[in-house]
Design a protein that fits this description.
Blueprint (H helix, E strand, L loop, with lengths): L1 E2 L3 E2 L7 E2 L16 E6 L3 E6 H7 L2 H4 L21 H18 L5 H9 L13 H8 L3 H10 L9 H7 L4 H8 L5 H7 L5 H14 L8 H6 L1 E3 L3 E4 L3 H19 L2 H14 L13 H8 L3 H11 L5 E7 L2 H10 L1 H5 L3 E6 L7 H4 L4 E4 L2 E4 H4 L1 H9 L4 E6 L4 H8 L4
Parallel strand pairs: 7-10
Antiparallel strand pairs: 1-2, 2-3, 4-5, 6-7, 8-12, 9-12, 10-11
Helix pairs in contact: 3-4, 3-10, 4-8, 6-8, 10-12, 12-20, 13-15
Length: 409
């Protein structure tokens, strides 16, 4: 671009003079202010310099070795993608949402999205209940402490990088951990958020299914904000598509019985270990290697590696009475870790925050809840409450379990 007095400006470069006024050649060093990262799901992602510094932090790079979907790859072989890729995608979507909603401090919101999964232990959600029991931290609490450098993560490099890049670690951590107030917090963790708009599409892509296909651009184009995010009536079809994709991905991928059996086997193996806060700085493969040092754990891990998994033997409609009957009948084998009893959807997956059916819709100038506007939304919400009990066991005792409990799979 030419400006007055024969000055040429190039993005990221200082002014360069030329023509009669240039008395001698001047070598110009180009300063790169951003990079383009090629993402198979979102396309080219433009990343500014201050965010690049965060990406290069060792705590963020660790996420390359944390599988996004835990043991799901045993069912969907393509599901080898990582929390690192998802974090980049969430950051990108957060920037788009912030621009659409004219949110303040766009880059702070993007930094929070980039770091929202920084506290994930190995295998992502696969054994978070066990980690919580042993460390009193879930991945959000661990993430908050890693970002702020609070005990037991005083050695974290993230706080200094954030400060040097012009961010306040405490503010970024609050938004990243779902504690943020106002619009920033809603963009990261809300009824429509950057997290879900990336992971549904990304997981569907790598699992090789079309069930998670979502028109994320249409969703973003029809959202607005006051104290919270809401959508215009014309955006309802896009939101319905999002809800269907969500339900199908949970039913078909995230809660696939075989993946959950493998997850339970790994969780049982790792339960033999002494676990402390260092779990949040390790990776999938390192964790398996450490668990394998225990004889009992090694048997289960080797079975998982060979895909020699426990076999589903009983599927039953969930009720508290039926659950108690099964647990009492099989308690001896359950205590020996030869039988796993699972409930799908999990019992803690309930309420509007999990089902996300409380989104506001603006219809003819007034606000309504999504489930009052969309019959499909109401129907889908009910489907999340239909639970089943699935009992799986070591193949060696399959016949005896089937005989003892009845109701074959």
């Amino acid at each position: 671009m030419l400006e007055a007095n024969g000055v040429e400006r190039t993005q990221g470069a200082p002014p360069r003079t030329f023509g009669p006024r240039a008395m001698c050649p001047v070598q110009i060093t180009m300063k790169q202010e951003y990079k383009i990262i090629q993402d198979p799901v979102n396309g080219p992602i433009k990343v500014e310099q201050r965010l690049l510094r965060i990406i290069d932090a060792s705590e963020v790079q660790r996420l390359r070795d944390i599988k996004q979907l835990g043991m799901v790859y045993l069912v969907f072989p393509g599901a080898q993608h990582s929390r690192f890729e998802h974090s980049l995608g969430a950051m990108h979507i957060a920037g788009m949402m912030a621009e659409r909603l004219m949110a303040d401090r766009k880059e702070e919101i993007m930094a929070a999205a980039l770091l929202h999964d920084i506290g994930h232990p190995p295998f992502s959600h696969s054994f978070e209940d066990l980690i919580m029991e042993r460390t009193s931290m879930d991945h959000q609490e661990a993430g908050y402490r890693i970002i702020t450098g609070k005990k037991p993560f005083e050695e974290s490099t993230i706080p200094a990088i954030l400060e040097e890049s012009g961010f306040i670690p405490r503010d970024v951590a609050a938004v990243a951990a779902g504690r943020g107030k106002g619009l920033a917090g809603k963009i990261i963790s809300g009824t429509i958020d950057c997290d879900e708009l990336d992971y549904l599409r990304r997981d569907a892509y790598f699992c090789g299914t079309t069930l998670g296909i979502v028109d994320h651009m249409r969703v973003i184009e029809t959202i607005f904000a006051d104290r919270d995010i809401f959508i215009d009536e014309k955006g309802v079809p896009a939101i319905e598509e999002l809800l269907v994709a969500r339900l199908m991905m949970y039913r078909t991928v995230y809660w696939h019985k075989t993946a959950r059996i493998a997850q339970k086997m790994v969780e049982t193996a790792i339960s033999h270990m002494d676990i402390d806060h260092t779990i949040f700085s390790t990776t999938d493969q390192i964790m398996l290697a450490e668990a394998s040092k225990n004889a009992e754990a090694r048997k289960l891990i080797e079975k998982v590696k060979r895909r020699d998994l426990f076999k589903p033997v009983i599927k039953s409609v969930y009720s508290r009475e039926r659950m108690e009957q099964i647990m009492e009948t099989l308690k001896e084998e359950i205590s020996m870790n030869r039988i796993f009893v699972d409930v799908i959807p999990p019992l803690d997956f309930s309420g509007s925050d999990r089902v996300k059916d409380s989104l506001r819709v603006k219809v003819s100038g007034r606000f309504m809840k999504l489930h009052d506007v969309s019959a499909l939304s109401k129907s889908l919400s009910k489907s999340f409450s239909r639970r089943q009990i699935i009992v799986s066991c070591d193949p060696d005792i399959y016949d005896s379990v089937r005989s003892a409990i009845g109701s074959p799979f």
